[in-house]
Amino acid sequence: MVIGAGQAGLSAAYHLRRVGYVPDRDFVVLDHAPRPGGAWQFRWPSLTYGRVHGMHALPGMELTGADATRPSSEVIGEYFAAYEERFDLRVHRPVDVAAVREGEGGRLLVESSEGTYATRALISATGTWDRPFWPRYPGQETFRGRQLHTAQYPGPEEFAGQRVVVVGGGASGTQHLLEIAPYAASTTWVTRREPVFREGPFGEEEGRAAVALVEDRVRQGLPPRSVVSVTGLPLNDAIREGLANGVLDRQPMFDRITPEGVAWSDGRVVEADVILWATGFRPVVDHLAPLRLRETGGGIRLDGTRVARDPRIHMVGYGPSASTIGANRAGRAAVTEIRRLLEKQPALTT
């Protein structure tokens, strides 16, 4: 069973197919999204394909000839749809998975809107998009303006003439600021930590080192941090311009939210019509809660992609594999281990 049909889920399904498992006979792929494309289908229209950073092709099929000026949601959605069709992955959608529980005879029971499935092994590839992180600050409920998260970002035109506070020091926060600034009456950028901008090339060695830092947290059973949080932000031409013209003038995190805006303990205030929370996402793992897989540190401890507490379960696109190239590699690794596990177990009987 594969839950999720984004990059991680499709990679896992591809590798299951490649080693001889047949969709809808030997394995099933469930996806809650209404159409192919994973989280990409929900990206804002102004994020064109040419502005996407780090999109790595799915295994076995390159994405070629894409128009860089088209929305990434359309380009990648069409690519994922063609991929599913080419490899006959037969994704079931839209299907919501409510819970995974212990069944009889070593089976896992996957309770979904399509019914309950029994499976000997599970690949959870549910990503993070459905769990946006909203920090809490004093006075938040009193704000008279609008608060929204990156997950709801509509594009820059909607902020025309408004005073906008953008919260968050990651790639989304800087992208939002640079887009919104030409339209807004004013923008203010606040982050909890001083942003780190990375100059120079970022090669394989640097990538491995960054992933290793995230992987170490997961091995300890701590909640994963994003790979970007340990790599810093690439100092490209757009970022340099934003730093030079003052759009990326970072302010420390405010202390409270007022009805009219945000305020610091030193008495400084900024009036705002909108607070845009570019504060990231958390892994979607609530469906696994009945199995009690969390460690005391709050995360799910992995050995590679395998859950330490239950070798039947693999998590792909979680922690160190939460990148497009990482998801591809993790999908292959998970299938290799699951195949060995199933060869040692008798088949399910009905």
Describe the structure.
The chain has 350 residues and is of the alpha/beta class. It has two domains: 2-130 and 281-344, FAD/NAD(P)-binding domain (3-Layer(bba) Sandwich), CATH 3.50.50.60; 140-196 and 232-277, FAD/NAD(P)-binding domain (3-Layer(bba) Sandwich), CATH 3.50.50.60. The protein contains seven helices and 19 strands. It has helices at 7-18, 72-86, 171-180, 204-219, 228-231, 237-244, 324-344, and strands spanning 2-3, 29-30, 97-102, 108-112, 115-119, 122-124, 146-149, 163-167, 186-191, 197-198, 233-234, 250-252, 256-257, 261-263, 269-271, 274-277, 302-303, 306-307, 310-315. Strands 2-1-6-19-18-17 form a six-stranded mixed sheet, covered by helices on one side. The chain has a five-stranded parallel sheet with strand order 7-16-8-9-12, with helices on one face. Strands 3-4-5 form a three-stranded antiparallel sheet, with no helix packed on it. Strand 18 and strand 19 form a beta hairpin. The longest helix has 21 residues, at 324-344. The radius of gyration is 22 Å and the shape is globular. The mean pLDDT is 90.
CATH topology of the largest domain, by name, is FAD/NAD(P)-binding domain
Question: What fraction of the residues are assigned to beta strands by DSSP?
Answer: 15-25%
CA-based gyration radius: 22 Å
Main sheet summary: 6 strands, mixed
Q: What number of domains?
A: 2
CATH C-level class of the largest domain: Alpha Beta
Helical content (DSSP H or I, runs of 4+): 10-25%
Number of helical elements: 7
Number of strands: 19
What's the N-to-C terminus distance?
17 Å
- Low-confidence region ranges: none
Which class of secondary structure composition applies to the elements? alpha/beta
**Strand line-up of the largest beta sheet:** 2-1-6-19-18-17
What is the assigned CATH homologous superfamily of the largest domain? FAD/NAD(P)-binding domain
Named at the architecture level, the CATH assignment of the largest domain is 3-Layer(bba) Sandwich
How are helices and strands ordered from N to C? EHEHEEEEEEHEEHHEHEEEEEEEEH
